[in-house]
Amino acid sequence: MKPNKKRKGTPCIPIQKSRASVILGIVSAIFLSLTVLGIWLMREYIQEPERIREAIGDHYLLGAVSMVLISAVQVIVALIPGEFVEIAAGYVFGSWAGSLLCLAGIVLGSCTTILLVRRFGSRLVYAFYPKEKIDALPIIGDPPKRNLLTFLLFVIPGTPKDLFTYAIGLTDMSIPLYIALTTAARFPSVILSTLSGDAVGTRDYRMAVIFIIATAAVSGCGLLVYRIFSRKHAEKRAVSREIPTIPHDDDPKSDPPMASR
Hints:
This protein has about 260 residues and is an all-alpha fold. The protein is built from twelve helices and no strands. The protein has one domain (about 15-40, about 50-240).
């Protein structure tokens, strides 16, 4: 029997999404397994932050590299919110060291994501995110204001920064400029999260609760602002599409076709 030929007009996007889902599932499973394994290995120290920090101190380089890689994978896969990774970094390494390690991982993950998008093109992005959602992003639809919008969207806690990173890969923004803008914008929220973890690590639970509540409140407000901004931007795009184009008198295409004789 002859193999079934592919029908003409059959879209390939579902196949791409299926492959992307499989890859994402495998990477997520590996990442989750490693996380569970790490928690299981450190189960005896969970209730004693001092022992965890002492154990990390004996293998500081390995622990630091692991933290950077976890932060990088979190950006690429977006399996869990970055705030949890940052709180864990503060718990283990302290606020400042934890912040630097998280930012280093975010830079690594962001560069990897952008390079992957520019290597495989929009098909990689559309395999994970709907095309309409990507096209509606302000940083895609408004190139003159892209740098300012990128900084503002990343400085607001609670916004889908991993989605923005994939979208930036579709633009002509240079990677060094992107890293400079987003690192400066991310720092306030990262340090706030690591301060929360550091407070738990030093058993200052009162400050930990204050920092966590503050982080949640700021993130919630930031997400609300982003949704309002996105809705207004979508309405503006919809209105601009509905405005008809008025032909000019000197445009030869605007002249009615001559009747055939």
